[in-house]
């Protein structure tokens, strides 16, 4: 086989890791790799809560994609994908077409904010940190809160899969308000669809439930579980289980849907716009197609009174990208790659300290007892990891991810 054409759609954790890993495995003579992304910047999404609470600026956690990709001899197309034709093996964009032999879909998500009326931020009073513009808007809302204190709700909508930021934002905002001497003027509530604290879409892990319960109670943050948020107004958050909860600053993580162009491409996704894959992250029917990260269709761990979807973190996304790259390489060499289970390692900022969680595999039952730890040292580790990740990634290097995030 001559030069193989590999196209990667998406320039965040999944796309960048796939590009670096595939180039490590294939010389430019053997594989022509193109990364297509509508955003010309890589953004370290786990630091969005820090941007929202003023500890980081967006430019501090971003870098242009073109330079490191050029260093790896990966072609960068700063374009918006409009359609994927899996039969013809062609990607259409607003600037042309990209034929491929192999495709890696790493498009991430579309925030389904419409699932909760009033969950803006740009067409309603609610706030969400699921993209760079939304995070900057939330940062403005938090600055207004500091000037005019009032009640706050932090929560997640039914069907959300990104629960970690709910806890981080609640703890970080509590810490910020205490430092400003304003906490006594801001009643705080955490509303989650989880059946218990720390479920996070993976059925819980070790003593994380007890850790979160104690942390919220000692900080005077009221919480309710199995909550279905139904509406956000300028004065409150409405739910199915109780009277409206007063709030002048409502931060709600929405459910996720597949990226529009991917969802609209025939035969590529399930009805929710996510890509069905096998254990190697190969599409279940479309030849030559892989999918990694939030774009992947993964069933929930189990039934819950209010829907909570399977978590998708940057750490797990990178694992998927590496598994897909290994399998693609093995296929071209004429053999089958081994299966690999996803594990999860996560550091959650708690304001004055952080919690570390490690599970293997993500879905219970697990081979190992989960690791749950708490302390100031984990907060230092989280900040150090952010800097190390950005330093490696902007130089076109694969990033050590042993501690996760």
Describe the protein in words.
With 405 residues, the chain is of the alpha/beta class. It folds into two domains: 4-111 and 256-340, FAD/NAD(P)-binding domain, CATH 3.50.50; 113-255, FAD/NAD(P)-binding domain (3-Layer(bba) Sandwich), CATH 3.50.50. The protein has nine helices and 22 strands. It has helices at residues 13-25, 48-52, 66-71, 132-147, 164-179, 208-218, 260-263, 314-332, 376-393, and strands at residues 4-9, 31-36, 41-43, 62-64, 75-77, 81-85, 90-93, 96-99, 102-105, 109-111, 152-156, 188-191, 221-224, 229-232, 236-239, 245-246, 249-253, 256-258, 289-291, 344-349, 354-359, 371-375. The strands form seven sheets. Strands 5-2-1-9-19 form a five-stranded parallel β-sheet. Strands 13-12-11-17 form a four-stranded parallel β-sheet. The chain has a three-stranded antiparallel β-sheet with strand order 6-7-8. Strand 1 (4-9), helix 1 (13-25) and strand 2 form a beta-alpha-beta unit. The chain is globular.
Can you give me a brief rundown of this structure?
This protein is an alpha/beta fold and 405 residues long.
CATH class category label of the largest domain: Alpha Beta
Q: What is the CATH topology of the largest domain?
A: FAD/NAD(P)-binding domain
Mean pLDDT: 95
Task: Using the 3D structure, state the CATH architecture of the largest domain.
Answer: 3-Layer(bba) Sandwich
Number of E strands: 22
